[in-house]
Specification:
Elements (H helix, E strand, L loop, with lengths): L7 H16 L25 H5 L4 E5 L8 H10 L2 E3 L6 H4 L9 H12 L3 E9 L13 H18 L6 E6 L20 H6 L2 H13 L4 E6 L5 H16 L6 E4 L2 E3 L5 H13 L3 E10 L30 H20 L4 E6 L25 H11 L19
Parallel strand pairs: 1-2, 1-9, 2-3, 3-4, 4-5, 5-6, 6-8, 7-8, 8-9
Length: about 400
């Protein structure tokens, strides 16, 4: 007996099969209007991200590889990225918890894994107001604290000389907020480094790093410096460092944004302004959240940058329109980066996937929690490979977040 299926069933089965192919990790989304002679979209593969960006800039991810990463995650990193930033293990507190105590096991494993897989390493970070134990400043005069700073930097940079190609030497030294008055100054954060060594701590840090590895590319790294008074303060600071002969080679714009709050025009202008100083620019900690705040603040409901995967929890999945808004945002950002490819040296995502992110639950990256490509992946590849095509319009940031 032959059953006669309703006409809708075969159509539904066909639709389901196409959907499964479309979301598979190894298959790319369909491209519109293939030209004559091309294979069907379902039979084509989009290039890996690092191959798409080759010739434009390095493309990176952040993580303390390979420790506690699955083989699937490690393969994702190997396949798509040509540079890694250690997310946590090279920060002062984890690597140098006591004056005579160093913890090199995790950074050694990371550097060895990257060398074995022909992936470059960018070090993060030598000097920071956060995740720095107070022994650096305890019971010492200026000379003692300077010696501790020098020993920390020379030991760390010297250990990985020739294996780590560059460093975020000083991280987030400029105060948040600001106004027309502070924009005329460096507006440095009132950190323990500033209190004990004064503004000279930046100059010293760069000098010590250069002495330890003269070939390393040395960066100042911060969030919120692409716009507003904080951008103006960054120019004052960088001009001072350059005038003093400080061995600084680049500036890192962190790029912690949300889909509704990205200052595209200001970012475009900021890259030009930094390049005009003779500095390279890197987008160092890129993520674009679907929900949540914009900014790179440590803590304040975000947890803290650099603590790997959170539990999967019960965060609701993003709606299709949210994913499209994120894809449009990433496309517009990468169009700006390609425009400035002579100045932009590197673009690094802060995390590997929506599971491996400090902003878990806000779906900020281009791979989902199952390591599958999101619409943003395709949007980035299109923006890089077809820079002359029309980029989707996206809303400008309105009023900047008061702390970004």
């Amino acid at each position: 007996m032959i059953l006669q299926l309703p006409r809708q069933i075969p159509l539904l089965l066909t639709s389901f099969a196409v959907t499964v192919l479309g979301i598979g990790g190894v298959m790319a989304a369909e491209l519109p209007s293939p030209s004559a002679g091309e294979p069907p979209a379902a039979e084509r593969r989009e290039p890996n991200l690092k191959d798409a960006c080759q010739g434009h800039f390095l493309i990176g991810t952040a993580g303390d590889f390979p420790t506690r990463y699955s083989e699937e995650e490690l393969q994702l990193a190997r396949e798509h990225f040509d540079i890694v930033t250690p997310e946590n293990c090279l920060k002062p507190a984890p690597v140098h918890p006591g004056e005579d105590t160093w913890q090199f096991a995790r950074p050694d494993a990371l550097v060895d894994w990257c060398v074995d897989n022909h992936i470059a390493v960018h070090g993060h970070t030598l000097v920071w107001h956060a995740q720095t134990n107070d022994w650096f400043f305890r019971g010492g005069d200026k000379a003692t604290i300077t010696a501790r700073l020098q020993d920390h930097i020379r030991t760390l940079v010297g250990r990985y000389r020739g294996k780590i190609q560059g460093w975020d030497v000083v991280n987030e030294a400029i105060s948040d907020g600001g106004n027309a008055g502070t924009a005329q100054t460096e507006n440095l954060r009132n950190s323990s480094w500033l209190q004990t060594l004064g503004p000279e701590f930046l100059t010293l840090a760069f000098r010590f790093a250069h002495e330890a590895d003269p070939d390393a590319k040395l960066y100042y790294n911060d969030y919120g410096i692409e716009s507003g008074p904080k951008h103006a303060s960054s120019l004052v600071l960088l001009r001072r460092l350059i005038a003093e002969g400080t061995p600084i080679h680049g500036v890192g714009i962190q790029g912690h944004w949300s889909t509704s709050r990205i200052p595209y025009d200001a970012l475009d202008q900021a890259i030009s302004a930094y390049a005009a100083l003779g500095l390279k620019v890197s987008i160092t900690e890129l993520d674009v959240t679907i929900r949540g705040e914009s900014g790179g603040q440590f803590g304040r409901g975000f947890g803290g940058r650099g603590f790997g995967a959170r539990g999967l929890g019960s965060s609701p999945p993003p709606a299709p329109q949210d994913l499209q808004a994120q894809a449009d945002a990433y496309a517009r950002l990468f169009s700006i980066f390609v425009k400035h490819q002579d100045a932009v040296e590197r673009v690094t995502f802060w995390g590997l996937s929506d599971r491996r992110t400090w902003r878990f639950g806000q779906h900020p990256l281009i791979f989902d929690s199952q390591n599958q490509r999101k619409p943003a992946y395709q949007a980035i590849v299109d923006a890089v490979l077809h820079p002359d095509s029309e980029t989707p319009a996206a809303p400008q940031a309105a009023t900047p977040h008061p702390d970004s």
